[in-house]
């Protein structure tokens, strides 16, 4: 079963492609209709309904979902997969297959993807601000999420930090600094105890939050 793009990724593609119900030529001179649909089925002067545009988009997306799923050899989280489907939908399967982006990603260089995306901002020999903005949106989608999943890798949340002696020291150090500011006396002693109890309570709450996040 082919992996499907997320709702967020689908919304990104719709937003950046826009929907035109009458056939037109895009910036590269390619006859287009609906949400960026191209091919032999698009004819000059053709008109479609909104429902037909939605169906064309889902049909077209299936091809690019397969392209990303089969050509990318490393695990992708939901946002990363959606970002690459949006990219492939915009530049084409062939461009994805030939791209340095794909080569570097398959070599395990996840961090290289955002900068590689930003190289694809030209159409018709011109740098287009719309493409700059789209690539930025795809890079943002790529960067989101803490889960990794794929055909052979189960999704797992990133492990939260645990309470350690170092963490306790980080909390206790500013408290000790405050305590040192006080001299002896009943009022100062009560205030010092209040600081200690308050710091202990905050540390306990923080520890509980980490346990709940790890559950």
Please describe what this structure looks like.
The strands form two sheets. The chain has a three-stranded antiparallel beta sheet with strand order 1-2-3. Strands 4-5 form a two-stranded antiparallel sheet. The protein is built from nine helices and five strands, in the order H-E-E-E-H-H-H-H-H-E-E-H-H-H. The relative contact order is 0.10. About 14% of the residues have low confidence. The protein has 215 residues and is mostly helical. Helix 1 runs parallel beside helix 3 and helix 2 crosses helix 3.
Low-confidence stretches: 146-176
Q: What is the percent of helical residues? A: 55-70%
Structural class: mainly alpha
Described by strand count, sense and barrel closure, the largest sheet is: 3 strands, antiparallel
What's the β-strand tally? Answer: 5
What is the helix tally? Answer: 9
Strand content: 5-15%
The strand order across the widest sheet is 1-2-3
Mean pLDDT: 79
Topology order in helix (H) and strand (E) letters: HEEEHHHHHEEHHH
- Computed over alpha carbons, the radius of gyration is 26 Å
The coarse silhouette is globular
Distance between the termini: 30 Å
């Amino acid at each position: 079963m082919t992996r499907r793009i997320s709702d967020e990724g689908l919304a990104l593609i719709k937003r950046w492609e826009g929907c035109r119900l009458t056939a037109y030529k895009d910036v590269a001179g390619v006859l287009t209709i609906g949400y960026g649909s191209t091919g032999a089925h698009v004819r000059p002067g053709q008109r479609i309904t909104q429902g037909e545009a939605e169906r064309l988009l889902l049909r077209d997306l299936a091809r690019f979902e397969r392209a990303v799923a089969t050509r990318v050899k490393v695990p992708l989280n939901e946002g990363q997969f959606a970002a690459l489907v949006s990219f492939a939908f915009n530049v084409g399967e062939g461009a994805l297959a030939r791209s340095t982006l794909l080569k570097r990603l398959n070599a395990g260089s996840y961090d290289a993807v955002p900068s590689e995306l930003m190289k694809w901002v030209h159409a018709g020999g011109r740098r287009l601000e719309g493409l700059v903005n789209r690539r930025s949106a795809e890079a943002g989608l790529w960067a989101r999420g803490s889960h990794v999943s794929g055909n052979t890798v189960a999704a797992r949340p990133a492990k939260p930090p645990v309470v350690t002696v170092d963490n306790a020291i980080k909390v206790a150090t500013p408290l000790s600094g405050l305590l040192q500011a006080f001299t002896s006396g009943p009022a100062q002693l009560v205030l010092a105890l209040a600081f200690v109890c308050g710091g202990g309570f905050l540390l306990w709450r923080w520890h509980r939050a980490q346990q709940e996040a790890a559950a």
